[in-house]
Design a protein that fits this description.
Largest sheet: none
Structural class: mainly alpha
CATH topology: Sodium/glucose cotransporter
Radius of gyration: 23 Å
Strand content: under 5%
Shape: globular
CATH architecture: Up-down Bundle
Number of strands: 0
Number of domains: 1
CATH superfamily: Sodium/glucose cotransporter
Number of helices: 24
Helix content: over 70%
Order of helices and strands: HHHHHHHHHHHHHHHHHHHHHHHH
Length: 533
């Protein structure tokens, strides 16, 4: 292992930590709003940068690179198609959240449907994050860092022991951000890591193409697309991980939920200082999505060209980094990957604590007429984060024993938790008389129905198609309840919001540019462009 790589890694990691502390040193962390929402004064850069990096975790980098190595670039559509969803959320969903001044998705559902649904959804999301978000992020981050630094060889221990060490290293540092710094410290470190991810992530395909082309990027590019045109395809055919038909069914729903109801993502937008900043931030994040395939997917095709017979396809990204980058840049990329693991982990931890405290603990205290202050809630939240972090760090290493098809499995399980919550949020926002019972029946119908198709018999349909089918069924259930058993009074939105609700005047231009660009790039990376089936 190269000393230069280690020193670069340590210097970059320490710099980001210190600079994040400096940016947030005056933040008031004694109030719930200050601790969990950054005081509701996050600017567009912090919102957009944090959204981008929370979205690109080690799971995405490792999993999508591996998918492109084994198959093609269709997996990029999980993230790339979200540009359209981000525009919809920015225009129609975010203003409603900011009008109500809510801190969490379950809080909005409590306002709309009553406190029992708040508890249901909070418990469901906490379970999802503890089982299917934080442990996989820790595990994949550990896998990449071990591949770059050869920790097991350096310490003379077996691979699993090295994974344990790295999981706890990432978990402890990530917990420190979340517990001691609150949301603004997380957002600041996310934005800084996001800058590094964009700059450093592009260096990987840059040096990879130079390596293939004997110093010429153009020659390397031509060799890659001529040698593996089928792997350059982002327009999935039947049998691919993301068939093109799913873009118009479950893919859209999953992305609408991710950006409009997923707590650990949405919390950044809820902390915007006003609606204009939130919309600018979301569109800044959407603009950064154009760079994402270069960072997370295209390296898989480059790795295939250089290393066509890797024993472990999950090591495609780390093999490429250590094989083509100078030693100093290996340390930089390791720091970036460490940051990418941290940001999703500490975001999940912060959001899980937010829901546990504000949607479960505080309502329980209020019900028993026990007064709690903001400092009390924050103290309980920090204790909850410690326990949740320890639980995630214990679970994470055991993913090693169930790693086959892990990325696809991760997406399927995410679909179980995501779409039903977005369904009741959407219907709740845009109807006035649908009752709580309709939302509960809808939620249970989706969980049972979708769960059956993924655990027992999918009848030959892609899981994203099943997500869309059950979405339609559940919307119909809620509308029927709204017609036959309507609640007594209309759901009324407040006149004013927690922050200024004046929209960003250039938002429609941003929507048009980003969506047009998304369509153009997708066509280019298809059989109509440079790729082949």
């Amino acid at each position: 292992m190269n000393t230069t790589s280690i020193l670069t890694f340590l210097c970059v990691t320490i710099f980001i930590a210190l600079f994040s502390w400096w940016l947030t040193r005056k933040e008031d962390l004694t109030t719930v709003e200050g601790y969990y929402l950054g005081g509701r004064h996050l600017g567009w850069f912090l919102v957009g940068g944090s959204l981008f990096l929370s979205n690109i975790s080690a799971i995405a980098i490792v999993g999508e690179t591996e998918s492109a190595y084994l198959s093609n670039m269709t997996v990029m559509m999980y993230g790339f198609a979200s540009i359209f969803a981000m525009a919809i959320v920015s225009e129609f969903v975010l203003p409603i959240y900011l009008r109500f001044g809510v801190t969490t998705t379950p809080e909005f559902l409590g306002i709309r449907f009553g406190p029992e649904l708040t508890r249901w959804v909070a418990i469901l999301l906490i379970l999802a994050y503890v089982v299917n978000l934080m442990p996989p992020v820790l595990y994949t981050g550990a896998v990449v860092l071990n591949g770059m630094f050869d920790i097991d060889g350096l310490l003379g221990i077996n691979y699993w022991a090295a994974i344990w060490i790295l999981v706890w290293a990432i978990g402890i540092v990530g917990s420190a951000y979340a517990i001691f710094g609150g949301l603004k410290a997380i957002a600041a470190s996310d934005a800084l890591n996001g800058v590094g991810l964009v700059l450093g992530g592009i260096l990987v395909p840059y040096f990879g193409l130079k390596f293939i082309g004997d110093g010429s990027i153009v020659a390397g590019w031509h060799e890659v697309i001529n040698k593996h045109p089928e792997h350059m395809n982002a327009w999935g055919k039947p049998g691919d991980s993301v068939p093109w038909t799913t873009l118009f069914t479950g893919m859209l729903l999953v992305n609408l939920n991710y950006w409009g109801a997923e707590q650990y993502i949405l919390q950044r937008s809820l902390g915007s200082k006003n609606l204009s900043a939130g919309q600018k931030g979301m569109m800044f994040g959407a603009l950064l999505k154009f760079i994402a395939p270069l960072i997370t997917v295209f390296p898989g095709v480059i790795a295939l060209t250089i290393y066509p017979t890797l024993a472990q396809s999950s090591e495609a990204y780390s093999s490429l980094v250590t094989g083509v980058l100078p030693a100093s840049l290996i340390g930089l990329m390791a720091a970036i990957m460490f940051g990418a693991s941290l940001t999703t982990f500490n975001s999940g931890l912060n959001s899980t604590s937010t829901m546990a405290v504000l949607n479960l603990y505080k309502p329980y205290k209020d019900k028993h007429r026990e007064a709690v202050t903001d400092p009390d809630l924050i103290k309980v939240g920090k204790r909850a984060q410690v326990m949740l972090a320890i639980l995630a760090m214990i679970i994470a290493p055991f993913i090693y024993f169930a790693s086959d098809g892990f990325y696809d499995y991760f997406q399927k399980v995410a679909g179980l938790f995501s779409v039903p919550i977005f369904t009741i949020v959407m219907v709740g926002m845009f109807t006035k008389r649908v009752p709580a019972l309709g939302a509960k029946i809808s939620l249970l119908t989706y969980l049972v129905g979708y769960g059956y198709t993924q655990l027992f018999n999918d009848f030959g349909l892609h899981f994203l198609h099943w997500a869309a089918i059950f979405f339609v069924i559940c919307v119909c259930i809620m509308l029927v309840f709204g017609k036959l058993m309507p609640q007594e009074t209309d759901f009324v939105k407040p006149e004013e919001g927690a922050v200024s609700l004046a929209p960003w005047k250039w938002r429609w231009v941003a929507y048009a540019v980003t969506i047009s660009g998304m369509i153009g790039v997708t066509v280019w990376l298809s059989p109509l462009g440079i790729a082949k089936w």
